[in-house]
Hints:
The chain has about 575 residues and is mostly helical. The chain has helices at about 1-25, 35-50, 55-80, 95-110, 120, 125-155, 165-190, 215-225, 245-270, 275-280, 295-315, 320-325, 340-355, 370-380, 390-410, 425-450, 450-455, 465-475, 490-520, 540-570, and strands at about 200, 210, 415, 420.
Amino acid sequence: MLQIMAALVIYMVLVIPMGTYLYHITTGRKTFADPVFDRIDNGIYRICKIDRQGMNWKQYAVSLLTTNAVMIFAGYLILRLQGSLFLNPNGTGAMEPTLAFNTIISFMTNTNLQHYAGESGLSYLSQTLVIIFMMFTSAATGYAACMAFIRGITGTGKDMGNFYEDMIRIMTRVLIPISIVIALILVSQGTPENYTANLTVQTLEGKNQDIAMGPMAALVAIKHLGTNGGGFLGANSSTPLENPTILSNMVEMYAMAILPGACVIVFGRMFHDKNKKAQAEKKGTRPMFGRQAGPVFGAMAILFLVGLMICFFAEKAGNPVLEQAGLSQAMGNMEGKEVRFGISQSALFTTVTTSFTTGTVNNMHDSLTPLGGMVPLLHMMLNCVFGGKGVGFMNMIMYAILAVFLCGLMIGRTPEYLGKKIEGREMKLIVIVLILHPLLILGFSALAVVNQAGLAGITNPGFHGLSQVLYEFASSAANNGSGFEGLADNTGFWNMTTGIVMFLGRYIPIIAQIAIAGSLLAKRRMNESVGTLRTDNVLFMLILVFIVYIFAALTFFPALALGPIAEHLILWYPM
């Protein structure tokens, strides 16, 4: 527990300066690195002939979609032709069509769901030009959309910004330089970084074993920083090659948590009352968090900590069936976990990777206790506990506006958020965003359990089998990518259905949220009155937590009751 507390304190120390730096990049303010990065960015603008003129929300959305579409097409071709291309010392063949479809959608949507093992399913060319490249571009796409969204809802500027400029600045000034630092740390801890063929070594038992090689450190760095999650190896960050030491484990956790938290701080810094801004500047100070960001960050933190405590104590309690069989559970439920990490680091990593929608794992989630496994499942169903690449923040703002709307109905006033009226157009789009997520998860889960092709993938029938199905589609819809890996998912049915869910779960909400921001940007700001609901205090933070849990309970509780909750009751209270 002390490990967890210390890790969270260090995180808070790191996230505030990162948020300030990201704020300066988003608003075009000066940073210490401008002399270097300005030249790089201007060179890219000239080569790509990018017009840096501001865009409205429709232009921004179209630019985002067309850019992603081109990369999807190019990446799919490489995966299908990798067996005939260069940088393939291990002789990896072409990827099967449905698996290639699933993989390219997975990485372009920042999900990184893997129905293949990277060490045997991809050439080094595919790992570099498809996987690593899309880890950068998909993360930059999400953060660019988030920055445009913040400009819209805060009324910063006259337009939504320029998508190409936002995407390039995020990559050159944040993702690439920080990834280089992380990769160097990983190499120092023992993670490989080369393009040599796999090594075949003789073990102490006299048998041969293949040791995977390749550009591993580069991929692992951006898979965490970009909240991607897809591993170079099938076993992901549970392997000593991707995650050798406790230091690498901590670095990977901070990498996937730092930017989503920073997005909330950017929001707080970009929105503040003009009078208070003038007073702060007069005193020579600026808001560290921002009054409006405090309740949002606090609500996310409460949801995260509640989940973390449930996961930690559930895993610490162990497995009663193994206890009855004579196996000591003093260390907790160590099935599927690495001894070098133990319960504390495993529970923290599990909660972080599914709260910040990264999807990387340092233990096998399919081996978690029922309640321990329910936490990552629930957090992906909520999809607003910080979330990844800015999307989690945008989802939480949807809940914030819903909370304002419901409270406004109760007191008979027109709902307002950040000084803007919330009207029918915005609420219709918010309903689309909030309803689509459970519809994709529950609808496709129902399809899987009534379809023989779906049932064939379930390897653990009963309550846990339903949990496997729910987890797969929750991970896909939330663009997380982790899985209960007991599911036999590399089939045509699972490749196509999860591919569709990933695509719809990524692009429909982002476009709707950009449209909401564009609508709010066009509205005149209203002055606060006595009846205005304050959204910058502790009360609103608690209302926000309450709204999120109520929505989740009404939507997902029946499915959870038939999955992890029922499994927990059978395990601990057998008939």
